[in-house]
Design brief:
- The protein has 2 domains: 19-249, no CATH class; 259-342, no CATH class.
- By secondary structure, the chain is mainly alpha-helical.
- It contains 14 helices and no strands.
Amino acid sequence: MPIALSLMNENSASDVNFNRKPVEGNPKGRGPLPFIKSIAEATALCEKEQDSFYLDAFMIEAWLGDVVVEAAEEYAEKKNPKDRAMQTGQAWRSFLKIFGHAHDEEFPHILENLFRFSEYEDVFAEMLLQTIFPMGVGHECFSDLIKAKAVDLAREPAEAVRLMRRTIERWCEWLDALIHWHTHAMWHLSPVSFDPDPEKRELAALGINQRAFIHLSDFSKSWWAWHHREAAERFKDSPKWQMVGIAMAGQEQKTWNYPDLDNVVIGLWPLVKRHNWTYRDLSAVISRELPKNQRYPLAREQDLAAYCANVLGLRKPAGPPGKSSADGRPIGHEVALRLCQHAPPTTSS
């Protein structure tokens, strides 16, 4: 059974796109975000609405966009999977580039706006919303958040901010996993999106979204229309513009041997890193969730380690080696079980 981290579980090769309806159960349902193209527009909207949220929303879009682009670069520019390095803290590093300058007293506001952002109809908002569940299932970061709320920010600001930063850092680990899975799935289902030339990748994204235009949210339609006009002017004399049409019509897919295995390994990697699981631990957890006839690469630790590194770009962080659980139930295995039970089935074509 796949893990509860997927933006692709309802897409076939004929309608791969970067936009889906918001997750069912969204408690607030705030509707689409305003389409904001610049910091100046965000600032003007904040002043008009007397609400500073919109500046943070613009920065959150930029942050998550950077992480998605970095993951795509890793796949597009390193054609040999063994050369890739995924889930190495990309989301947290990018967050610090954009929000790391914030003063301690601003951090509660940033965290509040991250949760608020997740309530809108937007593909990046959906990423945040989907990763709230794995972040909260038996994970210490939510207890940290509760502690942070209980701490008197005026009297113990350093401790409160430390706990909030830790919450966001844990959140980033699950975002890395989700974006990794999304990228890995797209690499198989829509290889035209991964040209080594970043400009061609940009134009391919326009073509793919044009193909799925009727299914896009109002926000994404506005984004596509603006981006399409801007790109058409920028590439009007370039042969690269034909990439829009190529992507729009493209149907090619890559052979995908183990989609469910990839989904589970990528989705559980934050637990592997957080609790220093051995590959034997990971294999024991996976084996309880996948069909019994899928033995490779689970039969031997060496095979699983090689598969993670050479196919998925996943390597355990440097440090002391972990100690395998005697009963195949490492710390955090209950979280893995909850995630797998929560997930809908994946589909691949």
